[in-house]
Every structure is written in structure tokens, then in C-alpha cells.
């Protein structure tokens, strides 16, 4: 029997996914097990949101390839899906705006679902649907049975948590809003100092109750950087990425010394924007 007090959660992972690896997929499983195990949350969906080309990260291949690989990787997942909104934006979007976009989308969908749910009528009594809908809307805010929209939480690795300390990579107000209004699920390897990092940050410490540190006891050191390095050297990446992703990479010859030089010498979009704003 479901606990009515459980908060439904949607896990959102933002990043390059250049390429997506088995470790990216494991983050979702680890976070889901942890949150469901608390008895306070129930994970209902996972979303992978590849960053757009305007991010300008060195070695970042075109977004459409990264989206397709993510879709291939999640093809057999019953709960993790790929969202293209962020990848299609002409300008780089801050993580806070991506979180806000998905939360608003969930709330709009939930509202539509509530409004379109038919109300049972008493026998012999007829009312127009428009009147029914008006009554429903008026009472919705007072009705304790109205189901709240799921809450979006940012899923990340310890490296993203530690990137908060990199000057001008994040706006301090964005970090505060992310942890206060949404929350973090940070998957960290055993022995990692994520808790120490939270302790040393006033903002993170203030909102520590909304930061969930998940220990990854089965060590997995796969990273996109290491995958690209292996590909440049003609080494096998089988069992490090899903088979369909490996096939796609090989068929399109995606990673090479040339691709690794993409955006070389270009300032990363958040650094460029935040540095400029700090000067004004």
C-alpha cells in the first residue's frame, strides 16, 4: 500500500552526456533506491537533459548526437527519459532555469489533469460541464485530496557539487535557489568528502536538509572523459556504455582528436556570462 504522505519526485540530470555512459544511468538507479528507501519520497520519473551547443565546452560534439545517444541508452528504461528542451535552446540556459522549466511543466500538466478529471454526478441530476469545471476550480485549493505535482530535484555526482566553488561558474543566488527550492541528490563514491564540502559552504550547510548524499558502495569510475580518451586511442569501450550507444559512436565516427579540439580556446558559456555580469 502506498504511503499517502510520500512526496513524488522527478529526478533531473543536466550535463554534457558526451557521451552518455553506464555510470550516468547508474546515478538514477542509486538515487531512486535511496529516496524510495527513506519512506518520505517516491521517485516517479527520471529526466536526462543534455546541454545545448552554446555551452561551448571543449570537445563537446553537436547536441543532436548526444540526444540520440541518450535516447538509445534509455530505450529500455521504464522510468528514465530524455528531454530535448535544454539542448534546443540557442543560448546556454542556467541549471536553475532548466529546473524551473521542468517544475512548471509538471505543475501545468498536473493542473490540466485535475481539471479534466470528470466529476461523478448524483443520479437524476444534470449539470453542464462548464459549471462543473468552475466549481471544481473554486474548490480545488480547499480540497485536501487534490494531488500535488511531483517535485523536481537535481541529480548529480560529487563533481558538480564541488564545482559550486569554482569562481564565476555558478551564480551564488542560483546555488541558493537550487538547494532551497528544489534540492540535490548527490551520488558520491565511498570516502568522498561531499559532506565536508557541504559543511564548509554556508549556503549548502543552511539547506543541508534538502541535500541528499547517496554513497555509491559499488565503485564505478567510468566517465565521459575516459570514454573519449579510449576512443581516440582506438581502445574498446564495450560494457562502459550501452551497446546501442557504442554502435552509434562507431557508425558516426563521433570522437577523435579533431572532435576533442572543438571549442578549444573558447571561454565556457557560464564563465563568460557570469564574469561579464560581475564586472557591471
Describe the structure.
The chain is of the alpha/beta class. The protein has a single domain (7-112, 148-278), classed as 3-Layer(aba) Sandwich (Rossmann fold). It contains 12 helices and 6 strands. The chain has a 6-stranded parallel β-sheet with strand order 3-2-1-4-5-6. α1 links the parallel β1 (7-15) and β2. α2 (63-73) packs antiparallel against α10 (243-252). It is globular. The N and C termini lie far apart (56 Å). Homohexamer. Interacts with ADPRT/PARP1. It catalyses: nicotinate beta-D-ribonucleotide + ATP + H(+) = deamido-NAD(+) + diphosphate; beta-nicotinamide D-ribonucleotide + ATP + H(+) = diphosphate + NAD(+). Pathway: Cofactor biosynthesis; NAD(+) biosynthesis; deamido-NAD(+) from nicotinate D-ribonucleotide: step 1/1; Cofactor biosynthesis; NAD(+) biosynthesis; NAD(+) from nicotinamide D-ribonucleotide: step 1/1.
